[in-house]
Amino acid sequence: MHPLDARTRQRIVRILCDIDGDFERKGRELEEFFRSAGLTNVPSYDGSARMQWATEVLEEHAEDVTATAKVLCRLCDPVEYDEGVPAAEAVRHAVNEVLEPEGLVVSLVGGRPVVAELAADGSATRFTAPSDLERRLSRLVGDQKARDLLLARAAETEICESNGAYVFAVIGIGSFVEGLLYSVLIERDIDLRDRGVLRANGKWTPLSMVGLKELVDIAHHKGWVQVDAKDFLNTVRDYRNFVHPRQQLERELTPDRDTVMMCWGPVHAVLNDLETVFLDVTKS
């Protein structure tokens, strides 16, 4: 993703404020929206014209593509509206009309809004590796060695993707997700770190011995990953199992660039979910 043009930001603000519309937001509601979207250092609404105030907030984050993406996703998220999905879909349609000249689109990954790129002909959605990954990981994972390893996995995955090694790219995406969930779980859940996972036979399994499927299930059970993101992550898990040639033979599937792009989608969704749960958006 790239920074939005100033005129595009103005059009997004118009949708956000929706003055005299069905989804109009008052000044304090705009402030709450930006905080809920995950923006940091959001000023208190000062009573000035809403369009002007919201535009200034967006301009403060204009070069931060991650913050911009969070605003766009929150604007199209059903949880933002009392009417739920119908309202969110109406807003998403309006937002995407504004984003089309930028070559961007708010798409749905397992029901969760994620910003993606449009193909050159505008006919398809392209997911890429998350931008600003180093900063985002630094706020979720405290262990520097773990962060460095995750960043290396993501970089190597992009190298595979760029050079047509699509099988190893999807394996790399699954490996990145596994490492991310493991790091977050072991740092933020003392019982999992010290005791592991309790089995039906009463025995404990160290978290280091737990696979990707169970890590996804644990994160979902704790409410750290939304149900739709969880379901879609299982697709990443399945492709990741292509590290075993027999799994690929059984599936009779050869991953291509589209497969890799599809697998990047839930990575965006799970990062967004973890940031929503763990980051204090009132602080930088």
Q: Can you tag this structure with a few keywords?
A:
mainly alpha; globular; Four Helix Bundle (Hemerythrin (Met), subunit A); 284 residues; 2 domains; three-stranded antiparallel sheet; single chain; 13 helices; two-stranded antiparallel ribbon
Q: Report the β-strand fraction as a percent range.
A: 5-15%
Q: Quick one: overall form? A: globular
CATH topology of the largest domain: Four Helix Bundle (Hemerythrin (Met), subunit A)
- How many domains, as an integer? 2
> Helix segment count?
13
The strand line-up of the biggest sheet is: 1-2-3
Q: What Rg, in angstroms, do the CA atoms define?
A: 20 Å
Total strand segments: 5
Q: What composes the largest sheet?
A: 3 strands, antiparallel
Structural class based on helices, strands and sheet pairing:
mainly alpha
Low-pLDDT residue spans? none
The ordered H/E elements are HHHHHEEEHHHHEEHHHH
Helix content: 55-70%
CATH class of the largest domain: Mainly Alpha
Q: What is the arithmetic mean of pLDDT?
A: 86
CATH architecture of the largest domain, please?
Up-down Bundle
Query: Terminal Cα separation, in Å?
Result: 22 Å
